[in-house]
Amino acid sequence: MNRVVCHLLAVASLISLIFLSLAWELWLAPLRPGGSWLVLKAVLLLAPLFGILRGRRYTYQWASMFILLFLTEGVMRAWADHGLSQRLAWGEIVLSAVFFGAVIGYVRLSPLAAYTSSKSSAVSAK
């Protein structure tokens, strides 16, 4: 798998997760009829979106830890919920796992030139 594929997978899975979160908490299976405040978790997913779209390595690094919150929520709701909500939770688990794998792949395949040049300039300044 190359870096472009990892980037496309990360973008697709993150955008899909945003739409899944919105649909889940507003229309498909909200905790309360008419929607719930859990829809705001989709807003949290907007934080890494623009950095992921631009291919910023730093965003990929912290997003790999950030997405684990959504993976954990999916696991808990897949275990505790029933019916459609449980199936949506499994979708959240799959999308979070795909995003995590794509992000890790992107970071591993991206060049370290920016990091190593800043590190070497800091060492040479001493």
Walk me through this protein's architecture.
Helices cover 81% and strands 0% of the residues.
List the helices and strands and how they pair.
Elements: H1 3-28, H2 41-44, H3 46-54, H4 57-80, H5 84-109, H6 113-125
Unreliable residue runs: none
Derived from helix and strand composition plus strand pairing, the structural class reads: mainly alpha
Number of strands: 0
Sequence of secondary-structure elements: HHHHHH
Describe the largest sheet: none
Distance between the termini: 40 Å
Determine Rg (CA atoms, Å): 17 Å
State the helix count: 6
- Kindly report the average pLDDT value: 90
Percentage of helical residues?
Answer: over 70%
Oligomer: single chain
Portion of residues in beta strands equals: under 5%
Overall morphology: elongated
Brief account:
The chain is mainly α.
Features:
126 residues
